[in-house]
Each structure stands twice: as C-alpha cells, then as structure tokens.
Amino acid sequence: MKPLILLLLSFLIVFPLFSQNKVDFEFDYAQFGYDSTSNYVEFYYVFNQASLTIVKTDSADYIRGILQISIIDSATGEFVVNKNWLV
C-alpha cells in the first residue's frame, strides 16, 4: 500500500516551560495501513529524567512541557495534524 501521509518530525519540539536546559528525549513512530486511502500512525516518546526540571507549587511538584507534532499529506501538501500537547 502506498503511504499517503508524509510524516514531518522536523517540527517535533519538546521543551519545558520553566527551564532553560536542553531537554533530552527520544521518539519513534509506527505506521499501519488503515484502509485503501489512509494510514494509522502511533507516536512513542520518552524523556530523559535527568534533563527535566521540577516545578514546585504549593499544592504539588510537577514537570511539564509541550509536544508539537506536524503531519502533512504527501498527496495534497495539506496539514493533517498540526497540534501541540501539554505533557
């Protein structure tokens, strides 16, 4: 099956909101044929805990960052996904 989605991970950006440190992370993806016109894509990511910064508040301590994923349809050049997720 000819893949119809071109995966652009050059815009996969993960950064902490409250830290100036470089975040060390790794990612991978899997692509599966869904039907004759589309694919199913899964993303896997992991952060190196040593490179994360803890944000302390009165109620809890946490770590947060933004994960941006952009996917462009190779047939049309249109964005299929262009979203940010708070992780």
What does this protein structure show overall?
The chain is mainly beta. It has one domain (5-86). It has no helices and 7 strands. The protein has a 3-stranded antiparallel beta sheet with strand order 1-6-7, with no helix packed on it. Strands 2-3 form a two-stranded antiparallel sheet. Strands 4-5 form a two-stranded antiparallel ribbon. β6 (65-73) and β7 (79-86) form a beta hairpin. The model is unreliable at 1-19 (pLDDT under 50).
- The strands making up the biggest β-sheet line up spatially as 1-6-7
Number of helices: 0
Tally of distinct domains: 1
> Low-confidence runs (pLDDT<50, min 5 residues)?
1-19
Radius of gyration over all CA atoms, rounded: 16 Å
- Compressed to H and E, one letter per element, the order equals EEEEEEE
C-alpha end-to-end distance? 33 Å
Proportion of residues in helical segments? under 10%
Strand-residue proportion: over 45%
The profile of the biggest β sheet is: 3 strands, antiparallel
